[in-house]
Design brief:
Rossmann fold, Beta Polymerase, domain 2, about 400 residues, elongated, 14 helices, 10 strands, alpha/beta
Amino acid sequence: MIGIDHNIAAVDIREKFSFTKSAASAALDKLKSYENVSGCLLISTCNRMELWASCSDNSLDLTQFLADEKNLEKDYVEEMVIRRHGEDAVRHLFYLSGGLKSMIVGDDQILTQLKDALANAREMESTDSYIEVLFRMAISAGKKIRNEVSFDKGNRSAAALAVSYLNGMGYSFNNKKCLVIGNGEMGKLAATNLKEAGADVTVTVRQYRSGIVCIPKGCRRVDYGDRYKILPECDYVFSATSSPNLTITVDKLCNIDLKQNTVFVDLAVPRDIDCRIARRGGMVLYDIDSLKIDKVSERMEIQLAEAKSLLEQDIKSFLAEQSSRLQLKNIQNTGTEFGEEVAWRVERQFRTLTCSSEEKAIIYELVKSNSDKVMQKFLFSLQKGLSPKEFNECMKIFKSVL
């Protein structure tokens, strides 16, 4: 996998690598067509973008693929992204699912995001057995962490942290007018947390959406196209959409009489709110990177150690299972090659037999299949009696002979 996240890049860099759902689907459709790619999956959230691929060899250049998809120079992408392979990639995913790599330790949203990424890959028919098992087991491990470890800041989202962060800065939401732009998962979380903090909340909805549009209980609704009309009465404006376009621009605000020190909070990546707002008087702007927590309590350290111990157990189980699967495939392939070798040698003697070509074909298949079975039986017995390292050395010798 290659990826970028909040630990190595600020939001202005991360947004260059973000994918909408349709763009992610198009990228997966293209990547799965590569001859050496058996499976692929893409994660794109406000804090990270990760591109995963299961490959038959090491020739795949994911950096070049990503550079082409995002219209960026390859050297720039090389400098920005982090790469992980094999066990390192596996461990990263399990820790990510467990909430240990989120901006908010124990964040629940990452589990939903991983499930959505897997569902989208399945919809695009871009997963293979390896990616399917890897992500299913990682998600299960993440659920176990949620159930067995109670983090100090567990069950919280970026939206909840934004409210908490602003409270800590001295801001009050009680009886304040708040506009939330976006009615997706993050938007609903923002509206819910603001309502719980005592705010008067209005949520934007889009007219083109069919069916019933649900908003958090106790909140008002306004058409997205009318958002600027209600800004003069707002104390806070939260924006959390998945749109690639800005929801609030400086130009549109020029002729609007806003309250003094209106606070804008941008929870989206790519960003929703024009960053030039921060340079104008009478307005305050916070983005997703403003919500970082630098201190870890002693209690949190204990909880992290507990979570890591549980995750390492699940990682070990996954690696053992995959090793067994690969070894089984290796044994089966070796048995097949041995059967073909024996049948080929026997076939050379067929000219001395007084039987028809059909009968010779039957004999050939019988020799091949039975030789295959004998060799597999032998190899399975050998596997039980040797250490993994010794058995792998034996398999290398068998391979060199066949």
